[in-house]
TrEMBL record:
SMART domains the UniProt entry points to: HTH_XRE
Presence of keyword Membrane: no
Source taxonomy: Bacteria, Bacillati, Actinomycetota, Actinomycetes, Micrococcales
Protein name: Transcriptional regulator, XRE family with cupin sensor
Domain HTH cro/C1-type positions: 27-81
């Protein structure tokens, strides 16, 4: 019988029960918790059941596009996999480790450990086909994937014939290097200092055909189907118009009286 709770909660529970799996084992834990067969997951992703099995056993590495599809079908995220990438479970928020944990109290203010603080060099990461994702939060956040992403020279997210699409919205800022990004039929080259946001349901592709690695910061919001705040505001406005605009506004909808 499957565990109660969300797929992400069941994955973390399984990790705590069974040790620290790698990416493949984490995928297997999530798939079995959902009661999905190898054949069915392969059908949804567009690969063979045997390939899924090889990924779960750590004998094969999925392409970036395939990995995105797998985590989407299992209602997971890269955060969920990154949570198991180093220690098997997310680090406790703000917990000091290593030298910081051993330092005398008062020696250095920053050793106290502000909740949510992640020290440089401690981010869990995943590397696939020349692309490296580093999670910039101390634990999995169901609302947003906050990542530092490095596209090595010559790498790409997926082929032109198999562009990615999934729920949510993406926001990115380029730190170093260049990347080519295609969203739908629109294409452009992003350089250091450039920023971009787009609807993730539109087919998209990232590539780095240049000689220097490209490092960027990404935030992916609503991958699991959460409504964008703009959509909520628009819906509230529409409901207000339909009600004649009397006594129904953003504040009153959420119980605020303004008094």
């Amino acid at each position: 019988m499957a565990r109660a709770g969300s797929p992400r909660e069941r994955l973390v529970d399984a990790v705590r029960d069974n040790g620290a799996p790698g990416m493949g084992a984490a995928i297997r834990q999530a798939r079995t918790a959902e009661g999905i067969s190898l054949r069915e997951l392969g059908r949804r992703v567009g690969v063979s059941a045997s390939f899924i099995s090889q990924v779960e056993l750590g004998r094969a590495t999925p392409s970036i596009g395939t990995l995105y599809t797998i985590v989407s079908e299992l209602d997971l995220s890269l955060d969920s996999l990154l949570a198991t990438a180093v220690t098997g479970v997310p680090l406790e928020s703000g917990a000091p480790t290593g030298e910081a944990a051993a330092a005398p109290v008062g020696e250095r203010l920053t050793t106290v450990g502000i909740p949510g603080l992640q020290r440089a060099g401690t981010a869990p990461d995943i590397r696939v086909d020349g692309v490296r994702w580093e999670r910039l939060t101390v634990q999995d956040d169901p609302l947003v994937e906050y990542l530092r992403v490095t596209y090595a020279a010559g790498s790409e997210s997926n082929s032109v014939e198999n562009m990615m699409r999934h729920a949510g919205w993406e926001y990115l800022h380029v730190l170093t290097g260049q990347m080519d990004l295609q969203v739908g039929f629109d294409k452009d080259t992003l350089q250091p200092g450039d920023s971009l946001s787009f609807d993730s349901t539109i087919p998209h592709r990232i590539s780095n055909p240049y000689t220097q690695d490209c490092v960027s910061i990404w935030a992916v919001v609503g991958r699991h189907g959460f409504a964008h705040p703009r959509e909520i505001a628009e819906q509230v406005a529409r409901l207000g118009r339909h009600s004649g605009g009397e006594g129904f506004g953003y504040g009153s909808h959420y119980g605020a009286t303004g008094e």
